[in-house]
Structures are given as structure tokens and as C-alpha cells.
Design goal:
Blueprint (H helix, E strand, L loop, with lengths): L1 H37 L9 E2 L16 E12 L9 E7 L5 E7 L14 E9 L6 E3 L13 E4 L2 E3 L1
Parallel strand pairs: 1-2, 4-6
Antiparallel strand pairs: 2-3, 2-5, 3-4, 5-6, 5-7, 7-8
Length: about 160
């Protein structure tokens, strides 16, 4: 009879270990699922074409963090920002007269070569507010896939 108890105890122990393993696997699967969901790019906020006078919202309706698409004329090419990630910088004037700084990450996307005042540049990126009209950034792909990809277009070539 002692032997039967030992066998039953071993069987119960194996069942307990299988239950623990199953519970751990369920938690791991849930954690992986939740992590994957958190990494998804939010595409629910539509892009706004900011340079269309008929369709664009008024300047005061532009919101920080919003994806915007537009076109403007280069007013001034600035020196590169080399602190942290390197950025090619220039000032665009939109047809509304508003000016925005474009900060294009040249560690993640190609530089626009030969950019000059008077050139036309189209953009798709994220708008941020500041006291000088705003900044357009994220004009490049996101290698981690967490942010909507942006781009700049100059003389028929797209930089992203």
C-alpha cells in the first residue's frame, strides 16, 4: 500500500507541475500579445494636408503630434543640427504665409542634396508647436515600426 501512495504522489506531482507550466505559458503568451499590441502604429489619426487653403484647418487647429502633409517653398537652409541624431534643417513657407521648421533626420534618411532657397518641398511628417510657427519632423521611416513613416519630396525624388 505504501508503494501505491508513492506512485499516486508522483502522479499528482507531475500533474501539479504540468498545471504550473501551463499557467506560465498562458502568462507568457498574454505578455507577448500585449507587447505586440503596444508596438502597433496608431493610424487612427488621419493626416491633414496643411497647405490646401480650401481644406486645411486654420493654424490654431493644428495639434502637436498630428501627422500633416503639405508643400512649401524653402525660405532658408539652416546648418545641420549635429547634437544627438543629426538633422538637416530648413524653413518652409506654406502658401498660407505660415513658416515651419523642417527637421529631417539624416541618420535615418538620406539628406536632400543641393537644397536651396526658392526650392519647392513636399512633406509628410509630425507637426509640433513652437513660438515660431512649428516644426515638422518624423520625415523618415521608423526602423522600429512604432511610428508612421514620413517623407520629404524634392525635384521628383522622395527621401524617407
Amino acid at each position: 500500500m505504501d508503494r501505491v501512495l508513492v506512485v499516486n504522489f508522483r502522479w499528482a506531482n507531475k500533474e501539479y507541475n504540468m498545471q504550473k507550466t501551463l499557467i506560465v505559458l498562458i502568462f507568457v503568451a498574454a505578455a507577448v500579445y500585449l507587447y505586440d499590441e503596444a508596438q502597433q502604429v496608431d493610424t487612427s489619426t488621419p493626416a491633414i494636408f496643411v497647405d490646401s487653403t480650401a481644406l486645411a484647418p486654420a493654424d490654431e487647429q493644428w495639434r502637436a503630434g498630428q501627422q500633416v502633409e503639405g508643400r512649401g517653398m524653402v525660405m532658408r537652409v539652416l546648418s545641420d543640427d549635429n547634437e544627438g541624431s543629426r538633422h538637416q534643417r530648413f524653413i518652409l513657407e506654406l502658401s498660407s504665409g505660415r513658416t515651419v521648421l523642417v527637421a529631417h533626420n539624416i541618420d535615418l534618411a538620406p539628406r536632400i542634396p543641393g537644397l536651396e532657397s526658392g526650392d519647392s518641398v513636399s512633406f509628410y511628417g509630425e507637426y509640433e508647436t513652437n513660438d515660431r510657427g512649428g516644426v515638422i519632423h518624423w520625415t523618415h521611416h521608423d526602423p522600429q515600426g512604432r511610428h508612421v513613416d514620413g517623407w520629404l519630396e524634392h525635384k521628383g525624388r522622395r527621401y524617407k
